[in-house]
Amino acid sequence: MKARDKIPLELLLVALPATFQDVLEAINANHLGVVFFVDADRRLIGIFTDGDARRALLEGATLGDTITRDTEYVNKSPHYLPLGAKISDIWKLLEQGVRCIPLLDSDGRVTDFSTRDRIRQFMVLEPDIGEQEISNVLECVTSGWISSQGRFIGKFEEAFATYLGGGHTIAVANGTVALQLGLTALGIGAGDEVIVPDFTFGASINAIIHSGATPVLADVDKDNWTIDLAEMQRLLTPRTKAIMPVHIYGQPAHIDEIKAFADSNGLFIIEDCAEALGATYKNRRVGLDGDCGCFSFFANKSITTGEGGMVVFKDAEVAKRARVLRDHGMSPKKRYWHEYAGFNFRMTNMQAAIGVAQMDRIDELLDRKKMIFQTYDKLLSGVDSLSLLPSNDWSENACWLYTVILKGHAEGSRDTLIANLGYRGIDARPGFYPMHEMEPYREYGHGAYPVASYLSANSISLPSSFGLANEDIPHIIEIFLDELSAIAPNAALAGTSEQ
């Protein structure tokens, strides 16, 4: 996010009457060359620019002069738009040379503004980078420790283990290689099968393929969207070596039942926790129940290092082997002596520097996301045409990306809704496509996947960024419900809830 995006609206508002000096100070403070004149209730009176100021000074105005709504220099017929204006309408004004557009609510109050660098648009997910993150990166740059050596890597690994409550943590380049390193360190490769849910992001199955093993796609449970326990039993073969449960959209899988199944069949568990940092299963933080847990720190995750990931192993010896594999398979005791045909999966010190600062405020970040999710739940809970994120008494969602299911709508309705929301400044995204429907993964399908297909076709994720203000969410939902009501439900599906 650009620094100017963070200019508070208050720096553009000047209540009349005001002195000429007050107005010039406001223009100087907001760096946009304009102020909005408002009354005591923030209703727009007019606009005053730096150009107006120069003209007034040239015509004899002084700093002590008082500006009122009747002052001749005030533009009393400014361009403005309603708060819910379409992005196309905003751009139309900007292309006409209007540099700063006030956005008004239904009572004429200035509620937000748009410029070329600050369109009124709610992104689905954005990182929250603070001063300490920047300071840590600056330390790396000025000290020269910018690659995979430096003090922040060990510090980040230690902080992560402390947060989870244990485990042997290894920082890596991204969440996908976290999964691949976990598989390889556990000895899973050619000739082995790994059961993985069909409803997930492609990183899960890609890591299995690139480890040399064969993915076996399983349908998911309609009640919690994670791997179906009965499917695991159906897909078990003598070649099955591991299960990769995915805690999808922050919802934990039935990990105790998965562990029991794995133990009785001699299988490894590689937990895909990319979206589940902070989630709990029976009051245990997700990531320590399997043989390894794998996390992602991509820019859209709850904490970020830009790119980056973490593998958390249960067994110290496996973790030791993984550390060697991560660094080209080189022996830690003999330089440039390779013990394995390893990888370059290392995290940089700069990435870890950001991660350390993010871990320092992880509770603050997760609490903010939880508040956002609770507000969405409260405002959407009574909408009959929606199913909300899974909820149960044995787990707590990580509150990563707020996702709902459309009920009783025709095929394609979800995509139409997403497009229409985009026109009105709401960045929404579809759910993950089922793996078995895509060309690279079709060979790994085994039968039908009705639940994964249903969830994929009808899921929509709404803006869930840390920076959402409390008043933003009702505005988003107002637009969302307005656009949802414009999409006619399919009469034949009117009573449909879930497959």
Automatic annotation (TrEMBL):
One Pfam family it belongs to: DegT_DnrJ_EryC1
The organism's place on the tree of life at top rank: Bacteria
Gene Ontology molecular-function annotations: transaminase activity
Entry-linked SUPFAM superfamilies: CBS-domain pair (SSF54631), PLP-dependent transferases (SSF53383)
Protein's recorded name: Aminotransferase class I/II-fold pyridoxal phosphate-dependent enzyme
Domain called CBS: residue spans: 6-63
Keyword Lipid biosynthesis assigned: no
Family: Belongs to the DegT/DnrJ/EryC1 family.
Biological source species: Candidatus Litorirhabdus singularis
Keywords assigned by UniProt, alphabetized: Aminotransferase, CBS domain, Pyridoxal phosphate, Transferase
